[in-house]
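job 3f2a | input accepted
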Amino acid sequence: MNRRHALQTLSSIAIASAADRAFGLGSFSTQTGTNPNIQLGAQTNAWAIDPKNLDSFFSVLSQIKQVGYAGFETGFFNLINQFDSSQQAADRIAATGLTFFGIHIAIPFDKNDPATHLPPATLYERVARGGHALGAQRLIFSGAPSVTTDDVKRKVEALNTAGRYAKSVGLEFAYHNHWWEFQSKVNEIETLYADTDPAFVSFLLDAGHAYRGGADVPLFLRKHSQRIVALHLRDYRDGHLVPLGEGTFPLAEVAATLRQLRWKGWAINEEEREDATKGGLGYIEPAYQALQKAFAS
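job 3f2a | predicted structure (297 res):
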């Protein structure tokens, strides 16, 4: 690390410390007492991040770290401005001590490739290269729903292709579901798990969306745990999103199932709201307590 990068890293630590004081974070616990096979992470969707202001991103990472999470996942749009000059941002991310679990591509349906219902290669190849340069471990996709069996076949082929590309640049690749794959009339979720190549494609099971879609989540985990590298955990009450642990999502049963399976991976809290409210720390700190309780060893 040269002198300029050293000074930038020290600056990032100072910014993080200032954010700690501003948000009163110093008293939160670190990740202790949880199942050693399972790491707890947070998705940054709970915060409003300005992609043009990198310090706003690092303020979020500071909060995630101080609450006790071991890693984070973030949408590509939060870091896209760093792709062409990534070293400074990569150094600052590494200095947080957080694992950069994955960089996620989720775009409006009409921006997806109409043939595959997935992000186009021109986008995901750029995000894969940029994410790898910034220290991400995985490239993560979300997609639009498939309508026909041919749609699903094309999606399977496209996921295998994306997974090969991600691997070629040093990333693992995972597909993230929403509720529509579980409500599919063409058996989309099961086909994706059955027909994609496990050498290139893993899954980030959004267990909350699966629950919303009518799935028996513990049963699904028993069937597919070997393909799943992480879970998104969210909660619902009366059909509406609420902080994790305050709704009807079977968190304790999911945690017990994973213990029985001796599953290893990431349990990632994703706090979103239908009205796009960004509750930040007010959402993820109680969610962390719910995760610690559920996944206690």
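job 3f2a | The radius of gyration is 19 Å.
job 3f2a | closed
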